[in-house]
Amino acid sequence: MPKSYNTTQGQAWDQIAAELWGREDHLHHLLAANPKHRHLQILPADLKLNVPDISIPAEEEPPPWQKR
Predict the structure, then answer these.
(1) CA–CA gap between residue 58 and residue 56 (Å, rounded)
(2) Rounded Cα distance, 20 and 18, in Å
(3) Half-sphere exposure for 35 (CA within 13 Å, toward CB)
(4) Domains of the chain: which residue ranges?
(5) Which 3 state secondary structure label does DSSP give 24?
(6) What are phi and psi of 55, to 5 degrees?
(7) Residue 66, class by beta-carbon neighbours within 10 Å (0-12 exposed, 13-18 middle, 19+ buried)?
(8) In which domain of life is the source organism classified (predicted)?
(9) Taken in order 55, 13, 48, 34, is the CA torsion positive or negative?
(10) Closest C-alpha among 7, 8, 4 to residue 51
(11) Reported confidence tier of residue 65, pLDDT bands at 50, 70, 90
(12) pLDDT for 8-19, tens place per residue?
């Protein structure tokens, strides 16, 4: 079952990727899962985004002190 995420006013794709997966550079997963909204740079409030289930290899995981 796909997960979803509701935005708050002014969020950007990289902020959400960092919140979800601990890395801004995973924003391409969000863009691919939400093609209708990929043209937006700053997101409006209460936009429901699809969150793909991705697997992050251990070598890509941030160190424990960088996890949120």
Answers:
(1) 6
(2) 6
(3) 1
(4) 8-54
(5) helix
(6) -110, 130
(7) exposed
(8) Bacteria
(9) negative
(10) 4
(11) confident
(12) 999 999 999 999
- Three-state DSSP class for 41? coil
Instruction: Provide CB contacts within 8 A for 6, sequence distance 6+.
Output: 46, 47, 48, 49
Cβ–Cβ < 8 Å for 7, 49: yes
- Is 58 or 39 the better-scoring residue by pLDDT? 39
Residue length, the chain?
68
